[in-house]
């Protein structure tokens, strides 16, 4: 097959099923991310092109065949498809995409496309400074009397004589991914984090934590983990890697720096951002603010009658630190999400008599093998970049279908565990048939990857009670309908108020109203609300999610910021 003809994005000569192609576009037409099941421009014989007909119009369309990327027959979301990677150019960009063809239609002269994905890979004239375009270093390697590389790095990260173009709030994987991407696009970005040391967002979590996904899926952009890193990364190793990453990627990063809020300076098209660094308040005037603050840090506490009468210690899970003082004593953990399970297991493993209280049905997925099913793509032998393209290319309908299938498979794999949990009264969420990935995308939780706590519950080592059976909290514990559960410690692992709450606190009600919901799939765009994409507030962006999401989607976010800065956004 010398040339694959496909729809609008590649010249409009395709024989795609009219109006029935599921598409995803990353910065194609509107300069943003959106998906569609039935792109209107594809209806009828006289359909327009996906490019905007002027600057965005494709110059050329090639069926791309590289060493590893020939067209291949693969199984995607239950369909056997011919998956074809292609590249094309527009006046402003070098772009690429994936089209999936129905193999049964290949014999005739009208192959039918099922899905189409196009993405801007780079803007012409604004390419990343990597590989052949890496910095030459002449400025500090020729002049022996001037400042050397380190002097320049230190000076540059002080921001004494300038403001950053982008202020990234939060230095976890989301903040690091976007900062690294922006740096390669020569956009001046500063990351700030209120914690004391790079990597503390992992280092300060509970003692036994290892990542839940395997190492193959968790690489940060540009700099994959070394091949000897363990399959499940321990938190402290990851924290140290974050430090190495910041250093290698030359990310400007201020620790012990809290973002206090920001107001718009419309006249100068920038923000006036208030920060507190080492206790000293200062303002910065970045043109863009990227919030990478993770889960909201405003704890959501349950309204349990009598909690204020409790004689022991009652804390939100965010304040739980150390099980040792509770050894030999009684603890109750309220909630059955990830934090609840992890804290209960931590307490149990350290000699505390702990009971869990379930508030609502929860999905349980064993961390392996069921939890790893979505990542089998990363074992197909393709490069990380190719796998990421495939992952990004899935239209929502296919993505959902895939996860329905995986949810069924996961339930089968976990059948014995689920039955054992049901026998001790644990309520399993069986209603949500799209599985944990969609729970995560829509609600940010509601499931637990079992790393042992479910077995402890099923074996009765961690007893389980139901929240609906609580009468009230009393000084010596929790009074259930059938008797008293003594407690010295009550941990409320009951989640956080959503990101919208933080937006209101930091930017005020008007900005919060303009931004609207953050996270959760938007039915119109079929993308996440306000995350990785332009928001209703100029200059305010959000990035969050898993390592894989941050790695993949930070590219599109960085390109959108670059397009704005370079003045090419309007022409996309
Ligand atoms: C046990 C466990 C295992 C997990 N395993 C995986 C896995 O394998 N793969 C995966 O992809 N995900 C995994 N996750 C989930 C997820 O990736 C993490 O929770 C991750 O920390 C989210 O990254 P983030 O950068 O969005 O936010 P965070 O890591 O929460 O970072 C946000 C940062 O923002 C800072 N911040 C917040 N507000 C402010 C402010 N006002 N001023 C300054 N700084 C501020 C915070 O100090 C923090 O450092 C796991 C989670 C847990 C608990």
Can you characterise this structure?
- With 572 residues, this protein is an alpha/beta fold.
- The chain folds into three domains: 2-123, no CATH class; 155-297 and 500-571, 3-Layer(bba) Sandwich (FAD/NAD(P)-binding domain); 299-496, FAD/NAD(P)-binding domain.
- It has 14 helices and 25 strands.
- Strands 1, 2, 3, 4, 5, 6 and 7 form a seven-stranded mixed sheet that branches. The chain has a five-stranded parallel sheet with strand order 10-9-8-14-25, with helices on one face. A five-stranded parallel sheet has the order 15-24-16-17-20, covered by helices on one side.
- α6 (338-349) links the parallel β16 and β17.
- α8 (396-413) packs across α10 (435-443).
- The longest helix is centred in the last third of the chain and has 20 residues, at 547-566.
- It starts with 21 loop residues before the first strand and ends in a 6-residue tail after the last helix.
- Mean pLDDT is 89; it is low at 1-19 and 40-67.
- Flavin-adenine dinucleotide (FAD) binds at residues 169-175, 192-195, 201, 209, 211-213, 218, 258-259, 292-295, 297, 338, 342, 544, 546-547.
């Amino acid at each position: 097959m010398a040339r694959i003809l496909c729809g609008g994005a590649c010249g409009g000569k395709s024989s795609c099923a009219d109006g029935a192609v599921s598409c995803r576009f990353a910065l194609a037409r509107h300069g943003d991310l959106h998906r569609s099941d039935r792109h209107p421009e594809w209806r009828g014989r006289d359909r327009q092109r996906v490019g905007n007909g002027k600057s965005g119009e494709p110059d050329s369309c090639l069926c791309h065949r590289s060493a590893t990327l020939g067209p291949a027959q693969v199984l995607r979301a239950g369909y056997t498809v011919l998956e074809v990677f292609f590249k094309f150019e527009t006046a402003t960009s070098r772009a690429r995409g994936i089209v999936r063809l129905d193999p049964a239609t290949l014999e005739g002269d009208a192959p039918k496309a099922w899905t189409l994905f196009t993405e801007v890979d780079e803007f012409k004239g604004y390419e990343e400074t990597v590989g052949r375009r890496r910095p030459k270093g002449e400025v500090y390697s020729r002049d022996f009397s001037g400042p050397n590389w380190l002097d320049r790095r230190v000076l540059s990260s002080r921001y004494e004589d300038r403001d950053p173009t982008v202020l990234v709030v939060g230095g976890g994987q989301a903040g690091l991914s976007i900062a690294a991407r922006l740096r390669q696009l020569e956009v001046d970005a500063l990351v700030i984090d209120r914690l004391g040391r790079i990597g503390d967002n992992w280092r300060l979590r509970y003692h036994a934590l290892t990542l839940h996904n395997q190492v193959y899926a968790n690489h940060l952009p540009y700099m994959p983990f070394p091949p000897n890193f363990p399959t499940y990364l321990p938190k402290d190793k990851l924290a140290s890697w974050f430090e190495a990453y910041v250093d290698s990627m030359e990310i400007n990063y201020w620790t012990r720096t809290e973002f206090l809020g920001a107001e718009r300076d419309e006249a100068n098209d920038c923000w006036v951002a208030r920060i507190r660094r080492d206790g000293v308040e200062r303002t910065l005037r970045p043109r863009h603010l990227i919030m990478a603050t993770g889960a909201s840090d405003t704890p959501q506490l349950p309204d349990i009658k009598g909690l204020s009468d409790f004689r022991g210690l009652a804390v939100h899970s965010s304040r739980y630190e150390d099980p040792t003082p509770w050894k030999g004593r009684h603890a109750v953990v309220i909630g059955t999400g990830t934090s609840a399970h992890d804290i209960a297991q931590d307490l149990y493993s350290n000699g505390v008599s702990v009971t869990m209280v379930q508030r609502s049905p929860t999905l349980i997925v064993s961390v392996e093998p069921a939890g790893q099913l979505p990542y089998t793509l990363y074992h197909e032998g393709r490069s990380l970049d190719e796998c990421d393209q495939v992952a990004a290319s899935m239209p929502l309908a296919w993505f959902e279908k895939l996860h329905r299938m995986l949810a069924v498979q996961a339930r089968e794999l976990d059948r014995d565990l689920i039955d054992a949990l049901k026998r001790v009264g644990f309520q399993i969420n069986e209603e949500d048939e799209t599985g944990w990935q969609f729970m995560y995308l829509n609600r940010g939780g509601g499931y637990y990857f079992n790393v042992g706590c479910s077995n402890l519950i099923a074996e009765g080592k961690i007893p389980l009670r139901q929240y609906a059976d609580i009468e009230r909290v009393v000084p010596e514990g929790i009074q259930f309908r059938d008797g008293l559960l003594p407690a010295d410690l009550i941990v409320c692992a009951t989640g956080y108020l959503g990101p919208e709450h933080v937006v209101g606190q930091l930017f005020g009600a008007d900005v919060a109203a303009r931004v609207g919901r953050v996270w959760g799939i938007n039915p119109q765009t079929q993308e996440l609300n306000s995350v990785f994409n332009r928001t209703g507030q100029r200059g305010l962006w959000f990035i969050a999610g898993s390592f894989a999401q941050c790695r993949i989607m930070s590219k599109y976010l960085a390109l959108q910021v670059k397009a704005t800065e370079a003045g090419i956004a309007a022409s996309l």
